[in-house]
What does this fold into?
Amino acid sequence: MRIRLVLGAMLACFLLLVGALWRIQVARGQEYQKNLVRQSVRRIRLPGMRGRIFDRQGRILADDAPSYCLAIYLEELRRPGPWNKTVDRVMELIEKLSGILELPPQLSRRDVERHIHRRLPLPLIAWRNLDERAMARWAERGLFIPGADIYTEATRRYPYGRSACHVLGYVGRASPAGDDSGYYHYYLPEMEGRAGVEKHFDELLRGSAGGRLVRVDVAGFRHDDLGFRAPQAGADLKLALDVEIQQAAEAALGESDGAVVILDPRNGDVLALASSPGFDPNGFVPAISSADWAKLIGNPHKPLMNRALAGRYAPGSTFKPVVALAALENERASPSTRFNCPGYFMVGKHRFLCWYTRGHGMLDMRGALEHSCNVYFYQLGLKCGYPAMYHMAAALGLGRRTGIALDYERAGLLPDDAWKRRVYGDAWRDGDTCNASIGQGPILVTPLQMAVVVAAIANGGRVYRPRLLLGVRKPGSKTFETVAPEVVNDLHFSRRALSVVREGMYAVVMSATGTGRRARVPGLEIAGKTGTAEYGRKGSGLKYGWMIAYAPYRNPRYAVAMVIERAQSGGATTAPRIALLFKRIFGLGGADDV
Amino acid sequence: MYDAVRIRRYLRRMDFVSAGAMIILIVVGVLFVYSASYRSADQPVSPFYRRQIVWGLLGLGLFLWLIVSDYRGARDIAWWFYAVCMVLLVAVLITGKRVYGAYRWLNIFGLQLQPSEPAKLATIIALARYLGRPGLRVSEWRTVLTGLALVLLPAVLIIREPDLGTAAVFLPVGLVMMYVAGVPVRIIGFILLAGLLLMPLAWLELDDYQKERILVFFDPARDPLGAGWNKMQSQIAVGSGGLFGKGYLRGTQNVLGFLPRSVAPTDFIYSVIAEETGFVGSVILMGLFAALLTGCVRAALAAPDRFGRLVAVGVAMLIFSHVFVNIAMTVGLLPITGLPLPLISYGGSFMLSVMVALGLTQSIYARRRIR
It folds into this structure.
């Protein structure tokens, strides 16, 4: 009897266990399953291949270059017992590899420990950017060393170096934040656009990340791969830039601080956009040293700033065609409107000077443009009235960002009565109008804006949004999807207005007495306008030398705006550079020119 | 004495259901000792499973030899056997080899012996001989206390090793044998009560790591990477098995080493089985043990004398305690105690002593009176 009771009790206990097992394995099994997955699976983010950047002729401006690294696979070197033993072994291997590659070790014990601590399932990169000689030594003697292998990492390369650096920008190592933070356990190094096109189109260029599921064992070493999702490469971009024109523009700037923009007046294409001084974007790959960075940041010439669209300059006399257009289009004056220039002009008790203090005498509008007579434009400005000038300038895109596909663009400043009341607590007066008529005073423009203006004069009044991006090629696709040109505003300049302004600008370069005659290139008809704007404290003698120009005169293909800082004058400093630029663009340079 | 007729007669009269369950359990044991030491296809598996096969075959030989020979021989050597085991238990405390912080192993002529395993068997036989004596007055205090002393002596020696889990098995085995021998329930109840009251005293005697294990049982988050680790990991392993398991050699907890490799083939073998075969497999395993136990109890019921009956009950209780405690700790119902799973866990001493115990019960069953 008692024996049966004992058996009964035993079997009852077994039933209890079965109940407990049911609860754990079946009822709550899912929960434990999840627990298990969470504990042993790591997600690694794989960046997509960055898209390339081409110029309009298909030349590569920014490329993905493989960088060969020597990686150490820790799971093959693991040692039981304390971590120190594994670290010892890794250090031994690094020592040995250092002998084979004839490269000094770059990792300290501390680095290895940190890697083990933070990124154990990932390979440890012992050397980056192996050169051909190191690769050859590896192939000869290192191929069969367990635990070490070659590993390729994508890096960025800019074949043209400093050329177009401000347009292209540069990349940096991406911070692993972003919307998916927390989802991945480990991030592989990834590039992130930090400036220029690289930054503005970062999302397109980057593509989408893939991932790798890695199972780790209890110590955290990689055990095997569970899954893989291929990353999507980024899109290739074709820019409107033409490297040859860009290089010509940069050569024209030379060592001076300044900027130049060349647009195609027929569609607003940005053929060149240069700012000086520049920098070498290759210096940012894979990461810029803090010393180099400090040098860039501390340089008083601000090489990182893109003066073409972030530099704000008083336009000086290059603003005069805008005044002329305002007066003509609003019928406040005609081409034959004449004013006398005795060398100065009185507004109330205040004397406004012409740059030519002996006076130009009687001038019509064409002559006034050719000689860049200030007194003529004081009077024309007063006759026209500031509101009409303001509206014309605004219609041409001044005082507003052009909307080019680059960051950090400045709007410049187009003042009006309200602005002056706000800032100076005073009404807009005739003196202000006189100053504005010759592009002085508070008015500020960027070289890019002036290029848009000169392009509009060349094409008859179409104000384009500068087109930097010509096309996008999605991964897997053979052809670029074209980006259409965009007309922001069509002013439909009257024939009368156009012809007098164009003829005036023609004379600026082509006439023997024009202020821009130094821009002349034999065999080429160029129209232009010089400008010299004072800046800095009064009497400091600092001047911006401006020149806007387009060519060929009868069928314009290039609209240029150039500014040089610390210039003597537009005519003396900038005009010869315009000549240099057009010579190279039209291939007219050579023997007969010397 | 061992003529062919006799051999055939007793072998034919053995309990085939129980013996079948036993064989299956041994095979399952070998399979999962292999699985528990398995890492991946390209890495060598430690030779544990091969040794386990040797132990199994050796045990099987002993088992068959015991069926044929008379179990009453065990009664004759009961005291000698008991005495030798006690000497070994003392010896292990003095000269034993330290493994994981405890002295449990004795080195005899190059063989590793865990004296606590044969001591379990010796105690069962000695107690059965004492309680099975004709004319013993079982309701007398003197009888009960003597019996208790027989059980407590090895238990205390084993606690000193220290091996709390193994020591704790002696008490239920002794009590159940006394209960079946006819000791009044009130006396057994009194002993249990006294034991409960003495618990706080025992607490003071425990080593820190033993206290920690018990504390961790009540609060697993206490030390998730230390003492709580095995419990949590074995629970995750068992839980993730689900209804049908992940398949043989597919258990990740074990393969990845989340279940410590030192205990996976021994005390935690059940969590490997549960992970790989799921609820269905675990229940089948319990069914096999139930069949084995039922066989022992059948032997006790059919035993021709009191000694045989008590031995069979003792063996049943011994196996039951191990199975219950082992599985209960794996699923988190009991604190972690290092008790192996009979016939399955890796280990020679325990395998042999369990096979001897089962051989004895079969020998008893084979000599039943046939009505």
